[in-house]
Amino acid sequence: MRDAILNLLYPKGVRCMQCGEVRRMDMENCLCSVCMEELESERIPASSCERCLSYVEKGTACAFCRDGGLDGIRRAYAPYQYVNAARNLVLCIKFESVEDCVPLLADAMADSLKHRDFDVLVPVPLHFFRMRERGFNQAMLLAQALSKRVNIPVADALKRVRATRAQSTLSKRADRERNVKDAFRMRADASVLGKRVLLVDDVRTSGNTARACAEELLKNGAAEVSLCTVCVVWKYQGKKFDKQPENRKKDRYM
Length: 254
Ligand SMILES: [Zn+2]
Ligand SMILES: [Zn+2]
Hints:
The chain starts with a helix and ends in a 22-residue tail after the last strand. It has nine helices and seven strands; from the N terminus they run αααββααβααβαββαβ.
């Protein structure tokens, strides 16, 4: 009841996306100043792996890179760790409030790009079932907003040709490989031949999806593939990766 009344008095955009409080907000931000501060504290520390942005214990090699987490991908860019406020914003753009969050996140993504020598931004595609359900692809919205900020065009070059099962439901390695093999395909009218591609997605967890996309892009002649996401799961748990992609438990979010 209290929320219903507050919603009438202070429609979305006046209230903080993260905590819901009616607060004075910075001009264009969707967060109140308290939550903005929290978000800032979730930035990826400079001490992280230069290539993949994962946490690296001092004096050791990066475990994520060592285990092939970024195979086929030149390097990764992202502003935030996948925790608390940053994670909430990523979930917000999957399920609601897209217009409110995307500008803030695209600004942060643009800032995280230490290099801009890319020819094209390619969003990670949604399966069409998911697309029909949700009505939009959050990776595409992020790519379009990022494109305006960095002046690199978007190419909707990939499609997800089939929904994959959660890898965790499959016990045999061969089944897992079959499950994820060829989940992504180039669109017939797209070309990345000779192009330096920046893949765009909302979050990198295991990196499976990004590696599968990179594989397809490279197979079709891309010169190289890098990855830009809003968040990365910063602390890698040290699991060996299958060479084939998609063992995400969170397939429902794809
Ligand atoms: Zn707040
Ligand atoms: Zn690394």
